[in-house]
Amino acid sequence: GKIKLLFKQRNEAPPIVILHTSSEEHDAINSFKKEENSYFLLKPIKSEELYKTLRQAIKSSEKETVAYNPLQKEEPSPLMTSPHVLLVDDNPVNMMLNNRMMESLIPNVRLAEATDGLQALEQCRGQVFDLLLMDVQMPVMDGIEATKQIRLLPEYAKIPIIGVTAGNVLGEKEKCLDAGMSDFLPKPLRQNDLLEMLKKHIATGVQRLPEDNKHPEMYLDMNILKEQMGGDDDFRKVFLNLVVKELFLAQENLKSGIKEKNTGYLKQILHKVRGTAGTAGLIKLVEQTASWESRIEDNMDYTAMENEIVHEINTGLELIKNLIS
């Protein structure tokens, strides 16, 4: 009764998972079975059954949340759009929860996983992530040693690495910072704590439209876009989604070219982005890409170019995604 009352007070309909034995009163269990989002597991609990039940409950909860308030306007996220995040943890339960929290907090996050520090190091050698969430105590190579090795990679000198610690191990926090971790969070990981940490370390990548979206016409020429799309709603949806896909891909290709300092490849990327932007009416992005394409050279300021182009791409993404929704 108290549980149900608490849910009603909060106006929520979260899933309820009941753990019971075969000898328990059927009347008590049947009272919960009347609830649509109730789930039952018979003791002793098997890990596979628990996993399936939790996955089913999460999916059900997501559907109910959307159905409960379908007209609620989504607030702009304070975090970087579509970052590439590496989750490093040897515990599958922690990994599942970390995936869930990241997906709920970061728009269009792209997640990769590693179950020990050595795997994390190998993945970092092959690509550049925007953020690492690193468990400290792991087999093969722990998070402390992995962080030390990753920091030796030139492109990871300033990438945020957040350590996840037991919290009660003497000196562990100091070891995290000494190894090169940007910050740390105690276990068990809480979503609000993680959100604050993400705001601290990847909020600088947030690309909001100036003056709270009051002048989108400075960035998007709707007349050009409408001319391209015509009056076919189906084509409009396909076209806009394709533009979003191409802009996301352009970000990845741009970072790759900058990492390799490949000016020829970067010219090709900028030229292609300019074409996409021109077709989609993203006039400011057209200006920026044209400007950098004309002055690209071997000893150029790659960081400045990346910041400006990524800023305009993210601005364009927000505008186009608003039209889709």
TrEMBL record:
Pfam families: Response_reg (PF00072)
Name under which the protein is recorded: CheY chemotaxis protein or a CheY-like REC (Receiver) domain
Organism: Pedobacter terrae
Annotated transmembrane regions: none
InterPro entries per the UniProt record, alphabetical: CheY-like_superfamily, HPT_dom_sf, Sig_transdc_His_kin_Hpt_dom, Sig_transdc_resp-reg_receiver
Domain HPt: 232-325
Modified positions (4-aspartylphosphate) in chain numbering: 135
Gene Ontology CC terms: plasma membrane
Modified residues (Phosphohistidine): 271
Alphabetically ordered keywords of this record: ATP-binding, Cell membrane, Membrane, Nucleotide-binding, Phosphoprotein, Transmembrane, Transmembrane helix, Two-component regulatory system
Subcellular localization: Cell membrane
GO MF terms, alphabetically ordered: ATP binding; protein kinase activity
Domain of life: Bacteria
Biological process according to GO: phosphorelay signal transduction system
Keyword Membrane: yes
Membrane topology, from the record: Multi-pass membrane protein
Gene3D superfamilies: 3.40.50.2300, HPT domain
Residue span(s) of domain Response regulatory: 1-58, 84-202
